[in-house]
Design goal:
about 35% helix, 8-stranded mixed beta sheet, about 240 residues, globular, Rossmann fold, alpha/beta, 10 helices
């Protein structure tokens, strides 16, 4: 399946956290920003209805663009280029963020419709999604994608990630880990990766300065930041896309 210009469909990268606060949203934003800096048509989709809005992590609060609730009111197929153009944009990243005023409801069907539409007009779609989500299961079952699970170096996080991976055993999508090395974490990076039984993109050291910048609404820094090497590993990973 291709868009009207017969271009390859966009690569879809799904980012989930092994636990709340693992850093999945920060990684999703960093990947999207790195992709946009390379000149790719990049879309960042926020599928966490209770996450507070990825626009805050992006540093783009107040940017105008189409909302999930507006898309839910559209019957039938969503026009690809028109949808891409209607998204809010910040520093080259097109994004669809969840609202904080209670009007966001993302059905699995809507999520799939939006992804399928945007794959025809973009190069990369980054989906920030909670691991306990019906929409995520629909994506894993119907969309050619790859998954990154963000795992802090803690026993609880590793246990949670292992349980989630076990539940996803029936899906055929590639899943890789990103380890976040916390100063309070009790496990080594090796001890964090080994029980998961999947390949790893890399390791990120927790950075207090980055966390403080996110809280101030500055977004993930461009250029050198704690996620730089991992973003490079993701974007340089050569997966065959649908032609």
């Amino acid at each position: 399946m291709t868009g009207g210009n017969s271009s390859p469909l966009a690569r879809v990268v799904v980012v989930v956290g092994a636990r709340g606060g693992a850093g999945a949203s920060s990684l999703a934003v960093a990947i999207a920003q790195s992709s946009a800096q390379e000149g790719k048509r990049t879309v960042l989709l926020d599928a966490d209805e209770l996450g507070g809005g990825i626009d805050l992590v992006l540093g783009a609060e107040g940017h105008r663009g189409v909302r999930w609730s507006e898309l839910a009111a559209v019957d039938g197929e969503l026009p690809s280029q028109a949808l891409f153009d209607a998204l809010a944009v910040h520093r080259g990243v097109r994004f669809l963020s969840c609202s904080r005023d209670g009007d966001t409801s993302i059905s699995p069907e809507l999520l799939i419709r939006v992804i399928h539409a945007l794959r025809q007009s973009s190069d990369l779609i980054v989906l920030d999604c909670p691991r306990h989500n019906d929409g995520l299961r629909s994506v894993l079952g119907t969309v050619q994608c790859e998954v990154l699970i963000v795992v802090p170096n803690e026993v609880r996080a590793v246990a949670a990630a292992s349980a989630w991976l076990s539940r996803c055993a029936g899906f055929t999508v590639p899943i890789r880990s990103v380890v976040v090395e916390l100063p309070t974490g009790g496990l080594s990076v090796r001890a964090t990766k080994k029980p998961l039984g999947i390949s790893s993109v890399g390791t990120v050291r927790y950075c207090l300065a980055t966390a403080q910048e996110l809280d101030r609404g500055s977004g993930v820094r461009h250029g050198k930041n704690p996620w730089t090497s991992v973003c490079s590993g993701v974007l340089d990973h050569d997966l065959v896309r649908v032609a």
